Automatic annotation (TrEMBL):
Record's protein name: LSU ribosomal protein L23p (L23Ae)
Source organism per UniProt: hydrothermal vent metagenome
PANTHER family in the cross-refs: 60S RIBOSOMAL PROTEIN L23A
Molecular function via GO: rRNA binding; structural constituent of ribosome
The entry's keywords: Ribonucleoprotein, Ribosomal protein, RNA-binding, rRNA-binding
Lineage: unclassified sequences, metagenomes, ecological metagenomes
This protein's GO CC annotations: ribonucleoprotein complex; ribosome
GO biological process terms on file: translation
Length: 98
């Protein structure tokens, strides 16, 4: 797979309360990914960038919300997120500290 493509798969971590709960209970991390990313691509990208072994990947399409501003109706973008489970005993440090 193209290395340029692998670097563009992960858009960033998705940090929410739900993501924190999932991370603590089952050793999973949540990422925003490109809208056309596949499970194998996400797995390769996480393994390459964070140097961990990925156990499983689940991908979810999130629909954008409809929002109103006065009399106008708008729509937020649809996006995609991935739940990545790493092998037992391994962690991902987003801060980059030791």
């Amino acid at each position: 797979m193209n290395e340029q493509r692998i670097m563009n798969i992960l858009l960033g971590p998705h940090i929410t309360e739900k993501a924190a709960i999932v991370g603590e209970s089952s050793n999973q991390y949540v990422f925003q990914v490109a809208s056309n990313a596949t499970k194998p691509e996400v797995k390769q990208a996480v393994e390459k960038l964070f140097e961990v072994e990925v156990d499983a990947v689940r991908v979810v399409n999130v629909k954008g919300k409809t929002k109103r501003t006065g009399s106008r109706v708008g729509h937020r973008k649809n996006w995609r997120k991935a739940y990545v489970r790493v092998k037992t005993g391994q962690t991902i440090d987003f801060a980059g500290g030791e």
